[in-house]
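In line with agreed milestones, work has continued on tokenised descriptions of protein folds. One protein thus recorded appears below exactly as we store it:

>
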Amino acid sequence: MQIRVFYLPIFTGMFFQFLADYLKHRLRAKTRHGTHSPFVYRLVDEVIYDFSDKKVYKDIEQLRKKLLRDDVKFVRNLAKRTLSPRLGQLLYRLAKQHPAKKIIELGTYSGLTTSYLAKANEQLSVLTIADCSETVAVALENFALLGLTHIDLRVGNFNELFLEELRMSPGLDFLFLSGNPTKEAILSYFNGCLPQVHEGSLVIIDDIYKSEGMKQAWKEIKAHPQVTVTIDLFWIGLVYFKKDQVKEHFKIRF
């Protein structure tokens, strides 16, 4: 069980609720053999459960270890706030499998998750938006160390920069919502992107069980009429808009 304890202090009521949600999810979640959707079965079998080692993992995880040993506490904290290796590698596989022309990420932190997304396809454009200028230098240095030159990092208000990008984009292919995990913010970003989603869009939402507000946001997103398939991995949620799919919600053990 991987818990990012920086936002869930041990021995608090919040932690115990999170643990209860996790145990409930484990009891109810299925593996690929418990899914009846061919699309979801293939996704789980070929992408989510692909735990084979890849060189790109080693390069990024070596950098993570370096950041966690950094003399500067701020840098160490950024690395701790970044997605775990297991989740970062899953995002790499999802981006690798997805026919996106552009990837957008809200919440840059150390840039390691951005790097996983960018390494999936070095021919496409990756936009990451940071709401804290102090993270920019750290992330840019990490991109340079990994040889990533196709990342557009912008810093400022999430809503303003994201909506500006949506106005200029012909469609939304792949979106990872990580920064500002509150009900109001996540629903605002999600509703804002709906006019740009299409048959092939994928929206990934981080921290769907972080708080009661996030759980409510996830529930409302699943119920939205444009959403047809959701996959609840506990740590993150995947949202699809495939019109040929019957509306279904899956809890998958990960």
